[in-house]
Design goal:
13% of the residues are buried. The strands form two sheets. A two-stranded parallel ribbon has the order 1-2. The chain has three domains: 55 residues, no CATH class; 32 residues, no CATH class; 121 residues, no CATH class. The protein is mainly alpha-helical.
Length: 221
């Protein structure tokens, strides 16, 4: 028997490889959710689950009950996936629609809060806002505080504050140029740059935000 999980993210090549390893009298047990198919950009087959059902003549056994989400969260999800249901013992929970100021106020009064995002990069600007407001924050997978310390130490040999700031402006220009060279794939670098130089909005273009300093620094080169 071959067990497969998150099969909605499999590619055609992966499915072909798995089929070759199944014995003549073997069985598949494949688990996935076509509504969570989000990796086509890296080669996942958007039709993976339908393809697997057709190729293997599999029996479809729906699992429509969410055992991790509160009732109000499930009701929100039902707008996209009408078949999903909460368990009988699920808590009601709460769904809030907050603007940036309300979000900061909410995070400030909570002893602990978890902010989930599919990618880490957009969280950089929020981390920056938390630091500004005296709210301890951590992005798993990236030590933002250490990154800032490393950046400061990189120019710590400057003889005075004006020289330190001038070195930092030169670094800003180099990072903007790297973002432009990389193009759309520069998302992680762009959001780190947003954090490091204090741009408030993640959709703001680093070059336009830095244009006055960018021009003056180029003249100094």
């Amino acid at each position: 028997m071959i067990f497969g999980d998150e099969v909605q993210d499999w590619s055609k090549a992966q499915w072909s490889l798995v089929k070759r390893h199944l014995a003549d009298d073997g069985l598949f047990l494949l688990v996935g959710d076509c509504n969570q198919s989000i990796y086509s950009w890296r080669g996942a087959d958007p039709e993976a689950m339908e393809r697997m059902k057709t190729d293997s003549e599999a029996e479809d056994l729906p699992m429509n009950v969410s055992r991790r989400c509160p009732v109000h969260a499930v009701n929100l999800a039902k707008r996209i996936v009408p078949t999903i249901e909460a368990t009988d013992y699920a808590e009601n929970g709460e769904v809030l629609d907050l603007n940036e100021d309300a979000t900061m106020a909410f995070l400030a009064q909570e002893k602990s809060a978890l902010v989930q995002c599919r990618r880490n990069a957009p969280l950089a600007a929020w981390w920056h806002q938390c630091m500004r407001n005296g709210i301890t924050a951590v992005i798993r997978g990236r030590d933002m505080a250490q990154d800032l310390i490393n950046l400061i130490e990189r120019f710590a040999s400057a003889e005075n504050l004006p020289m330190f700031l001038e070195s930092l402006r030169g670094w800003e220009v180099e990072e903007v140029e790297k973002c432009e060279a990389i193009g759309p794939k520069a998302d992680n670098r762009k959001h780190w740059l947003i954090f490091a130089i204090g741009i408030d909005h993640a959709d703001q273009n680093p070059r336009s935000a830095l244009e006055p300093r960018y021009q003056s620094t180029r003249r100094l080169r």
